Amino acid sequence: MEIKLKVDASGLSCPLPILKASQGMKTVEQGELIEVIATDPGSVKDFAAWATSTGHALVESSAADGKFRFVLRHK
Amino acid sequence: MTAEVAPKPKKLVIICYSGELEKTWATMILASTAGAMEMETTVFVTFWGLQTFVKDKKRITGENWMQKMMSFMQRPGASHRPLSKMNFMGMGPWMMFKLAKKYNVSKPKELLEMSQQMGVTFLPCQMTMDMFGLKREDLIDGMGDPVGAATALQLMTEADSTLFI
After folding, report:
1. What CATH number is given to the structural domain containing B35?
2. Chain B contacts of A53, Cβ < 8 Å?
3. What is the pLDDT of residues B30-60, one digit of tens each?
4. Do the domain assignments include residue B134?
């Protein structure tokens, strides 16, 4: 399924990656996917917690070349 | 066929009591993140906390000389918060903001604005407004109606989590 929105949170510190993701999620429809790229190592656990709390599904959480990639589906 | 019932959102209440930079920062980080986590978030703003919510461009507030003197001695506004330790006439906060910029950390004022966009409710304490001589037009736009301790306590007893900062 195609990514509807890409959010680049590279270089941003807590809690900005989550805030940017939340703002982005509000612009897409139910079932659509957003991708977030972050460099904050804390964001790995934070995105899992955010997904649990909001109910949006964390479809992918991966790391490569010092960057973290999260794919989330709007609930 | 049964309709799917959305789970009830978690409720967070923060009592924003302190006006120092370090505590204001914690309040704003938690309030904005709670908003992003789609928690129903209310911040009751009282005593020195309310100084943070006076418009940045306001210099002197109050009606009588003592209230005016208080605002003169502790400059109000989210961008003018002192550190409780190592303030050094504003050198401490200046260095903190330099570091925040270097490490891409949002300032309290930016987090406050994002909190408001995310639907976080900020309620000013009526008694504090009276004591410091603060009027609604002295405070930033978008705050709720002034309330008292009973409202704060009622919100706290119904919340899933409460913080006093």
Report:
1. 3.40.1260.10
2. 10, 37-39
3. 999 999 999 999 999 999 999 999 999 999 9
4. yes
Q: What is the ipTM of this complex?
A: 0.90
**Chain-chain contact of A54 with B37 (C-beta, under 8 angstroms):** yes
In a mutational test of the A interface, the residue from B28, B104, B117 whose CB has the highest number of chain A CBs within 10 Å is B104
| Domain harbouring A22, CATH code | 3.30.110.40
Q: How many CB atoms lie within 10 A of CB B90?
A: 12
Between chains, do A13 and B103 touch, taking CB under 8 Å as contact?
yes
| Structural domains in chain B (count) | 1
Q: Which residues of B touch A50 (CB under 8 A)?
A: 36-37
Domain count of chain A?
1
Residue B141 within any structural domain of the chain: yes
Whether the CB-CB separation of B78 and B143 falls below 8 Å is answered with: no
How near does any CA of chain A get to the CA of B95, in Å? 17
> pLDDT, tens digit, for every residue of A30-62?
999 999 999 999 999 999 999 999 999 999 999
CA-based nearest distance A67→chain B, Å: 16
